[in-house]
Amino acid sequence: MNAAGAVGPAAVAAQVAAVVAGAPLLAGLMRQVRARLEGRAGPGIAQPWRDLRKLMRKEPITPVGTGPAFRTAPLLLVASTAVVAALMPLASTATPAGVRSDLILVVALLALGTVALALAGLDTGTAFGGMGASREMTVAALVEPTILLAVFALSIPAGSTNLAAIVSGGIHDSARLASPAGLLATAALAVAVLAETGRLPVDNPATHLELTMVHEAMVLEYAGPDLALVELGAHMRLTVLLGLLASLAAPWGIATTASAAAVALGLVLFAVKVALLGAALAAAEVFWAKLRLFRIPELLAGSFLLALLAVTASYFLTGE
Amino acid sequence: MNDAVYTQLLDLACGAFLLAAVVVLWLRQLASIVRVFALQGVALAAVAALLGTYDRRWEVLAVATGIGVLRAGLLPLLMRRALTALAPAPGHPYEEDVSEARETEPLVNVAASLLSAALLTLLAYAVARPLVELNPTPATRALPVGLAVVLIGFFTLVTRRRALAQVVGFLLLDNGITATAFLAASGVPLIVELGVSFDVLLAVLVLRILTTRMRAAFGGTGLDDMRELSDR
What we know:
By secondary structure, chain A is mainly α. Chain A has helices spanning about 1-35, 45-55, 70-85, 105-125, 125-160, 165-170, 180-195, 215-220, 225-250, 260-285, 295-315. Chain A has one domain (about 1-315). Chain B has helices at about 5-25, 30-55, 60-85, 110-135, 140, 145-160, 165-185, 190-220. Chain A: One of its GO terms (molecular function) is lyase activity.
């Protein structure tokens, strides 16, 4: 009993540690896959960690005239994402935090990070910061309802908005995942994750071109350790959201009991699933072009519609 | 085929049917719209075939085959021919008239029409509620899907400018009506189905000829430019 009681908190700690340590590696893996497909040698998957170490050693500098919004945003971003990583059933559903892993709370925490960064972009008072913040808010306003609706569609068969309950329901009744509602919700969630993490059809993470960047424009004024935190936060968001997608669409292997071996297996499978998803995304990005900014609302309205159809399908077709 | 598998497959086919209608609203390239319409025909044939297999009524299977051939094969083929007839002659790559191959500016922009499609789907569900409650089987539960496709087809018909996009809207409407008939009453009698199918085929043939003539007479198929009758 005592040993089982200790596994739960250990699983939460392991999830957070895996996300923090693994997120830069995931970003490195994606860049490496992309480089290889483009015929370049690539810097290796540990390069983001080396970048972070270099930035951490630099002297912290903040622009003149910036206030607390600018200074606290990187910390808020990393902290809120770490809390999300602790709450979500990434490796195990039987954690003490799993009881509180409510869908609305998770989306609110993710939105908190977005808003903190947008405020920081406004706080610098530069043209690019304001432009990036305004664009980020346009995208976020369309993405948050889509994520909510898509996960809500998956929550109807489970009868609860608790993510742990949804995931364990998916493990026990896998026919639920292949239903029209499940497939539509997964598709909508995939588009929403791309937009939320600023990946290619919505935002190009590799560019610093003034007219097209969204995320980069907001963080243009950051330097040194603050920039390191912002980058780490962005990598962590990507990992957490891909993990959410993997847990909801392919929940097999996630531990449902509080045993150490199951949690370890769940962690390994989580890493494998996220790495596979990331590699597939990076490979797909080679073939995609960035959408025009004015076409993005179309894409997001489409994914919102998919999520809404998923909700109606799971509510009406199953006819509970 | 046991009940659970049947319900699952029927739901999947109905989901694909509705999704195809939505994707038609989402796309701009007329060639891709025609391809998606063909996929919708496949989904409709699958719905009919599933109902026929489940009820062991073999004439429904024959109707399903007919629907598949007509709506997934013949009608898309005719529309593709009309598209190539509209395209400029090859050999002038720099004079390509792109505006004819795309729905450049629908009356309602794409994001708004997607949101309208969401509203129309909800409306269809609300309207079909009393019908579903009469006899809740898996097939009647999917009835709102047919009504939603009827509404979305009508919306496409009203808001698109190109003649071919409007033809697709008309055919979506017809697909929706057929699906509603199948889901509500396991199909109409064979003779009625045949009549409707020939009607649709004839309509598409006539519209195709009309499109070519319009193009020859006015140099475009944008229906908004034609406000008055001209006497030449």
